[in-house]
Write a structure and sequence with these properties.
Structural class: alpha/beta
Order of helices and strands: EHEHHEEEEHEHHHEEEEHEEHEHH
Largest sheet: 7 strands, mixed
Shape: elongated
Strand content: 15-25%
Number of helices: 11
Distance between the termini: 36 Å
Helix content: 25-40%
Length: 334
């Protein structure tokens, strides 16, 4: 039996969850033109890339043209594709279902596309660290091999325990350390606390940001878990009503609307979750200047910014330290 080919791909955050809902993977470098018209050789792709980007260095030409060549000529229908989505921190696994095509309607000016039948969307925290390290490749498109069985098991909906591997190449270290730290934080906030303790954690984070905050008693409060304000007595506006969801799934518009319905005139709303928000929820947020949605990534940034002010119990929950890692120069991207 032939070995199952597995591809990993990174797409810009601007795609959001559109690749999953619309069934595609896509790359940029649109100025090179319709790649199907190029001769099926790496040299032809390098020549076309160099002609389009004459200032690109030789190393960048080889890397970027190689990505395009693999996408057009080596990727085949039936291959498995793994897409780690930054928008919702899910690892999406599917099967390539179509040949290369040019689609100008796709987001973020990424017109080079292939159809994909997505089968599974699995939280990043379900995978071993070596598997996450492998799909944290600095390349836009790459072969997945070292942890192939783990991703195939996830595709089948099966549990899989992988052996831990410690080796990480220097050129991938920066991206991997960042993603590893983010995964660690999300795992601790999800698995190291109850939902009620998570509310107290968010309240403490707001205190570190200069707010007075208190956790409310549940029941009939429109989803409001925390009340925050600038003055000690809570008389001075604005009042901030906060809802917390200790979940990794995507929060939809109805839940966001429920919080907004509990906000009175002159008040503000804050929705905090470990996961992400749907496109409809984000659209609703943009129409409400007194509403802010904080997903897992934004929450991590707030933690980094105010970590030094945390009480010891929360620093024990999230034991972090500052580190210096390589910052390799990246190749031109779409």
């Amino acid at each position: 039996m032939a070995e199952q080919v597995i591809w990993g791909i990174h797409m810009a955050r601007e795609h959001g969850v559109a690749p999953i809902s619309q069934g595609y993977v896509a790359l940029g470098w649109n100025d090179v033109g319709d790649l199907s018209k190029l001769a099926p050789t790496r040299e032809a792709f390098k020549a076309a890339y160099s002609a389009t980007y004459p200032d690109a260095k030789a190393g960048n030409v080889a890397v970027s043209a190689g990505v395009l060549f693999r996408f057009v000529r080596e990727m085949k229908a039936g291959d498995v594709v793994v897409y780690p989505s930054k928008e919702d921190r899910m690892v999406n696994i599917g099967v390539v279902a179509g040949e290369y095509r040019v689609d100008p309607a796709l987001p973020d000016d990424c017109h080079n596309a292939r159809a994909v039948q997505w089968r599974r969307s699995v939280p990043r925290t379900s995978f071993s660290q070596p598997a996450l390290n492998e799909i944290g490749s600095a390349l836009t498109l790459f072969r997945v091999s070292s942890n192939a069985e783990e991703f195939l098991a996830a595709l089948r909906g099966e549990a899989f325990e992988a052996a831990e591997i410690d080796e990480v190449s220097a050129e991938r270290a920066a991206a991997q350390v960042q993603e590893s730290t983010e995964d660690f934080i999300i795992k601790r906030l999800k698995g190291g606390q109850t939902a009620y303790q998570f509310e107290h954690f968010v309240a403490h984070l707001l205190k570190c940001m200069g707010y007075f905050s208190r956790v409310t008693q549940a029941s009939g409060d429109g989803g409001v878990d925390i009340i925050a304000h600038r003055d000690e007595l809570g008389f001075e506006p604005p009042i901030i009503k906060v809802q917390c969801k200790q979940v990794l799934s995507t929060i939809g518009r109805p839940e966001v609307q429920q919080l907004h319905g509990a906000i009175e005139r002159g008040e503000h709303g804050l929705f905090v979750t470990l996961g992400g928000f749907s496109a409809d929820a984000r659209t609703f947020e943009r129409t409400k200047p007194n509403l802010r949605l904080i997903d897992g990534e934004a929450l991590i940034e707030m933690i980094y910014a105010h970590y030094e002010k945390f009480e010891p119990r929360y620093q024990m929950l999230l034991p972090l330290t500052r580190s210096y890692v390589p910052n390799p120069i990246g190749s031109p991207q779409e």
